[in-house]
Specification:
The chain has 544 residues and is of the alpha/beta class. 35% of the residues lie in helices and 20% in strands. Helix 4 crosses helix 5 and helix 12 crosses helix 18.
Length: 544
């Protein structure tokens, strides 16, 4: 029988449930178990696709085109769990499915209720992920905090499954906060109340992970165990680290979290192969020097808006033995009469950036600032990486400043432009049978063999994930290429441009897809790896 672990949180949000669940998954994989990860999000949206990045952070896209919560990105970076739309369960999805069944008469006239119909729908979706006979453990993270009205159906589902499957097959892992008050004293009362709230939902936590500034001493663990009805050996600390979140699997291993979980689930202990995570920390500690990467984007106030991009840059820094300093630049600052040198170059008080990355985004705000940044990088031969919108910015900039089309633009931003160098699929005369909907999920790119794209991947056949509506306009392909812009990647039928590169430039690469979603600390993405290598080389050459 499959084993199920329900990870919940209390006291307050943003304690790190996603990282804790992912780290536990990583440890169980290190012990040879086949793990699957699920995120239950209580919001009523069907998915995260229409949410503002300021509201909910980035939208993580799976191979099958699901637009999901950013926690699935944590799962992908820490574990090998395959991820699809089945691994993201929202209140919106659940209620939509139940209402559709009711309209079809599938409940045979019965009154449709939260229990059993909503909870049965949630259970069915969880069991579907674990039905593969090769799966050993399914880790289910329930979003929000205990006590939230939106989370109640998911907590009730967890209660039912723990009751039906038995404690040997289903565990409750609860993450709580131990705040530090004046004088440095850690207060256990919030944790006690959080566990009490779980017990009121009918769930007795089996394991507590306490978020605290420091490792809990034995006396504090015993006190927490006494007041929460949890064994002392099952009280763990997720303490503040001054290194990286990728040390957390090792921190949990040192506290024997994985051994306690296996013992409670009745799984025979297996040797833990922690070499990949130890190697990550060795690379982290061996870094020398830093490169400053300017992130020129639209959603700079919230770090999670570009979470996967920032993590991929960190991974690439590990691969190149350098620290990557993120220089977050709101693209609006580069508009108007702003001198790029004061923001990007030598006139900046902290010095120039060593590379520029323009990430994805939607809407007109700040676009001209991104164009300014791309032009500055091209003329100054500064490494540039354009992702999705960032590639389209390269095309717009080339049209304006190389071909001399001052009004070159995307029809997303200017419907009246005479030079729509980026446009919707159905606006392009040579593209047929695609429709105008967003391209979502995994698709193939063919890399040109003389391109930096091919050099990075080492193969012509590339599979990456998309999330966009607008494309390089084919009607301008001839003028663009004849003036020097290099097309580095195409769809297999050659109908859509997937990548462009600047000619005679150290590293000016744009891709229409989102490579950041496939980067891991143990396996950095090749494009990010080569981008940081180019930035490192550029900094060294500039210093000579």
């Amino acid at each position: 029988m499959n084993k199920y672990i329900f990870v919940t949180g209390g006291v307050c949000s943003s304690l790190g449930k996603g990282v804790a669940a992912s780290s536990l998954g990583a440890l169980l994989e290190c012990r040879g178990l086949n793990v699957r990860m699920i995120k239950c999000d209580p919001y009523i949206n069907v998915d995260a696709g229409t949410m503002s990045p300021y509201q909910h952070g980035e939208v993580y896209v799976t191979d099958d085109g699901a637009e999901t919560d950013l926690d699935l990105g944590n799962y992908a970076r820490f574990t090998s769990s395959p991820l699809s739309r089945a691994n993201s369960i929202t209140t919106g999805q659940v209620y939509d499915a139940v209402i559709r069944k009711e309209r079809e008469g599938r409940f045979l006239g019965r009154t449709v209720q939260v229990i059993p119909h909503i909870t049965d729908e949630i259970k069915g979706r969880i069991y579907a992920v674990g039905k593969d006979p090769d799966v050993d453990v399914v880790i289910v993270e329930i979003g929000g905090t205990v006590g939230d009205i939106e989370s109640i159906p998911f907590l009730e589902t967890a209660r039912q499954m723990i009751h039906e499957l038995g404690k040997i097959n289903a565990l409750s892992v609860h993450l709580t906060l131990l705040p530090e008050v004046a004088g440095g004293e850690l207060k256990t009362k919030p944790t006690q109340h959080s566990v009490k709230a779980m017990q009121e939902q009918g769930i007795q936590p089996d394991i507590l992970i306490c978020r605290a500034p420091v490792l809990l001493d034995e006396a504090t663990r015993r006190k927490i165990a006494l007041f929460t009805n949890v064994e002392t050996e099952a009280v763990f600390t997720s303490y503040d680290v001054n290194t990286t979140i990728y040390e957390i699997p090792l921190i949990f291993y040192e506290q024997k979290l994985d051994l306690v979980v296996l013992k409670k689930l009745g799984v025979e202990s297996r040797h833990a192969d922690l070499r990949p995570w130890k190697r990550v920390m060795e690379q982290f500690n061996a870094r020398k020097g830093k490169v400053r990467i300017g992130i020129v984007g639209k959603y700079m106030e919230l770090h999670d808006s570009y979470k996967s991009v920032y993590e991929a840059l960190f991974h690439a820094g590990l691969a190149n033995g350098v620290e990557v300093e993120l220089v977050k630049i709101d693209s609006s600052r580069l508009e108007g009469e702003s001198d790029p040198e004061t923001i990007l170059g030598a006139k900046h008080p902290e010095g120039p950036v060593d590379g520029i990355l323009v990430p994805g985004g939607f809407g007109q705000r700040g676009i001209n600032g991104m164009v300014q940044a791309a032009r500055w990088a091209r003329l100054n031969r500064v490494p540039y990486f354009g992702i999705c919108l960032g590639m389209q910015i390269m095309v717009i900039e080339w049209g304006r400043h190389v071909l001399g089309w001052n009004d070159a633009d995307s029809t997303e931003f200017n419907q009246e432009t005479k030079h729509p160098v980026v446009s919707l699929l159905e606006e392009q005369v040579d593209v047929k049978n695609y429709g105008g909907t967003m391209r979502l999920g995994k698709s193939e790119t063919i890399a040109m063999e003389d391109s930096k794209l091919f050099k990075a991947y080492g193969t012509k056949h590339i599979w990456e994930r998309h999330r966009h509506r607008y494309e390089f306009a084919n009607q301008y392909r001839k003028e663009m290429t004849e003036s020097g812009l290099k097309i580095a990647g195409l769809t297999p039928d050659g109908s859509l441009v997937e990548s462009v590169e600047w000619p005679e430039h150290p590293w000016g690469v744009g891709v229409q897809y989102h490579p950041e979603f496939k980067s891991r600390p143990t396996d950095p993405h090749p494009l990010f790896r080569d981008f940081i290598a180019a930035a490192k080389d550029f900094k060294e050459r500039r210093g000579k």
